[in-house]
Amino acid sequence: MSMIGKYRQVTPHELALLRQNPGLVVQFLYGDAANESLSDRTLDIDKTWHTIHFLLTGDAWEGVLPLRNAVLGGSPLGDIDVGYGPARFLLPEEVRDTAAALTNLPFATLEQRFNLGELAAAQIYPSVWDNRHRDDELAYLKPNYEALVQFFAQAAEGDNAMLLYIT
């Protein structure tokens, strides 16, 4: 079973409702509300989530703000497991700070930081670094990173909050 990094833009009102009623998060992410036409408010970065986090922060699980918030940051939204742990949220100001940091970090910088040996040593998911070729991995990583940068910029422009979760 794969671990997939996902995002959902939410309005401040939606976030307030979810924070008051965290039990609604599963229905919100996977139920009727998720079936609406929300393609512009959702993002799936597939299995690149951990690699992106590591390349942004230099750490497998932690890192310095605001870049830590791009993948593994945020505050837990209750304790309900939505796949691999609870969803996490970023407030609109955290989204803006993260968007600004991402916008100032071109993919070329991540490409310079990309080292298969370091990824393997840090046990970065999906832990297949010994069997892959660098160019193939970068070709898979680049569109997902660029989509993430654009998604955060769009959320910041709309003054939205963000839900981050792994399924």
Sheet with the most strands?
5 strands, antiparallel
Q: List SSEs in N-to-C order.
A: EHHEHEEHHHHE
In the CATH scheme, what's the topology name?
Hypothetical protein yfbM fold
Distance between the termini: 9 Å
Instruction: Give the number of domains.
Output: 1
Strand segment tally? 5
Percent range for β-strand residues: 15-25%
Shape: globular
Helicity level: 40-55%
Mean of the pLDDT scores? 94
Q: Number of helical segments? A: 7
Question: What structural category do the secondary elements indicate?
Answer: alpha+beta
Structural Rg = 16 Å
CATH H-level name... which superfamily?
YfbM-like super family
Description:
- The protein is an alpha+beta fold and 167 residues long.
- It has one domain: Hypothetical protein yfbM fold, CATH 3.40.1760.
- It has 7 helices and 5 strands.
- A 5-stranded antiparallel β-sheet has the order 2-1-5-4-3.
- Strand 3 (75-81) and strand 4 (86-90) form a beta hairpin.
- Helix 4 crosses helix 7 (134-157).
- The longest helix has 24 residues, at 134-157.
- The protein is globular and about 45 Å long.
- The model has no long low-confidence stretch (mean pLDDT 94).
